[in-house]
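ok so I'm stuck.
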Amino acid sequence: MDDQIEKMIQEQEPMAETMPNVITAMSSLLQRVSETNDDLSRPLWEHQRISAFSALTKPSIPIRSYMERIFKYANCSDSCYIVAYIYLDRFIQKQPFVPIDSFNVHRLIITSVLVSAKFMDDMCYNNAYYAKIGGITTEEMNLLELDFLFGIGFQLNVTLSTYNNYCSSLQREMFVRKMYSPLLEPSFLTHKNLLTSLHDEDSLSIHQNKQLTTAV
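replied:
not stuck anymore, here's the structure
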């Protein structure tokens, strides 16, 4: 990673000791989105449509506990969680017929973190290890990774401006939680494509030259 970009990320992103606050913010956003989509009273068959991310039943582990488990065992860099959040937004924008709900949110989370860690970090655990963290099989983890990559159109680069804007979004979410006021809704709920205004193809990406591998 370019030294200047690395320095800017370190200045902008939460440090390791404050990462649980970021996880809390992301968990809050994803929980709200999942519950909103669950309450849309869609026909049952929509939950059972062909999707590698959809579980037959709702996982019993809360979203926050699931993310804390990933944070505890994955040992990926702090920036991976921000980038995973960006990837999730891209996935939803490109796959509007696969809304985040309680049936698929856990698999989407573990997959987005895996993809982010492979792209962002020089060293990361393999798919088999992430499968154990996520409570799924290695074969399923491999399939989810491929589906997710195709789902976002292999658009893995993230510009500094996009990264900073999503950091600000999570910071506002943390502020909102403290103030108990619904001042900000995530793009998952509003269905506004944040990247339309944030992404600049000519600007520097956070990690422009990384090669993503799907090997276990």
